Amino acid sequence: MVNESTSATTRLRIAIQKSGRLTDETERLFKNSGIKITESHDHLLAHAENLPIDILRVRDDDIPGLVMDHVVDLGIVGENVLEETTMQREVDGLYTGYRRIMQLNYGDCRLSVAIPAEKEWHGLKDLEGLKIATTYPFLLKRKLTEIGVNFKAVLLTGSVEVAPRAGLADAICDLVCTGATLQANGLKEVETIFESKAVLIARDQELYPEKQAILDLILPRMQGVMAASESKYIMMNAPRAKLAEITAILPGAENPSIIELEGSPDRVAMHVVSREKVFWETMEELRRLGATSILVVPIEKMLG
Ligand code: PRT
Ligand code: ZN
């Protein structure tokens, strides 16, 4: 049992999306960072089993406000929602302070303008005087005001992509990932106005020392998980004479370890960590340079 009166000062409280596009990746990040959360999705508040951390499961739209109102210490949310909510709260006269702790490597999407596929497009000035359906009126207004374009926002919180066909709007401004939803609705993406990823944010007050200590423990772990997910461990046997060329084509490679091969003075075993993705083309290039037994292995955790 958690004592609620002391938990406010000693247990780190983190708000995450209850159920949606950020949920699985956020839970995976916690799990790989050694934070064991109780499985239940039904409860608003879940406790980590092995660390003094409480997880608040809420709608993503509520996360920036919970951090800015100091109800939680940390939150994970898309930059799109964070920016939009900040502008909304400024207009409402609410507090908008927060600290950006780190960008995460998931939740990638872009906020784009889309119009019916058959319409011509010359640029954002084409939107002058049009009705644009969106869930992000503030981000859209910020962009269009910069270039002096007036428009009428039609505020929709879902099914934005059907608005033009339903006669509710001339264009839309919505989140896009693959573009399949736009295409399925007879729309074409014409201009990106904001790019977004998930971010970890914190309340802008200093944390209680107990909570700061937990953050200091989990932050390097989260950074390690993210660095590992993008990195690969590459092993191969290679001609000694080609080592410089081989290292040069490996993306983000650090100093390789070179191991002598018994009975083969001209060839060595080479082990290297690459900080970026390794594509088939790179492996084929390695083979052309004389490398053999090329193995690319995922890395689970990295520290130091
Ligand atoms: O219930 P709750 O309010 O918590 O969730 P929600 O429905 O508001 O949000 P959710 O789960 O859809 O998205 C959460 C966050 O994920 C967003 O705020 C973005 O930061 C991020 N994200 C990443 C996306 C997408 N990718 C995405 N593709 N959010 C929405 N979409 C939509 C897009 O608008 C389109 O309608 O997904 C649909 C499919 O996209 P395509 O282009 O791949 O077809
Ligand atoms: Zn939402």
Task: Give an overview in words.
The protein has 304 residues and is α/β, with parallel strands linked by helices. It contains nine helices and 15 strands. It has helices at 4-10, 23-32, 63-68, 79-91, 137-146, 180-184, 209-230, 243-249, 280-288, and strands spanning 12-17, 45-47, 53-58, 74-78, 99-103, 109-116, 131-134, 152-155, 171-176, 187-196, 198-202, 232-239, 257-260, 267-274, 292-298. Strands 2-3-1-4-11-5 form a six-stranded mixed β-sheet. A five-stranded mixed β-sheet has the order 8-7-9-6-10. A four-stranded antiparallel β-sheet has the order 13-14-12-15. A hairpin with a 5-residue loop joins strand 2 and strand 3 (53-58). The radius of gyration is 25 Å and the shape is flat. The chain starts with a helix and ends in a 6-residue tail after the last strand. The mean pLDDT is 94. Bound molecules: phosphoribosyl ATP and zinc ion.
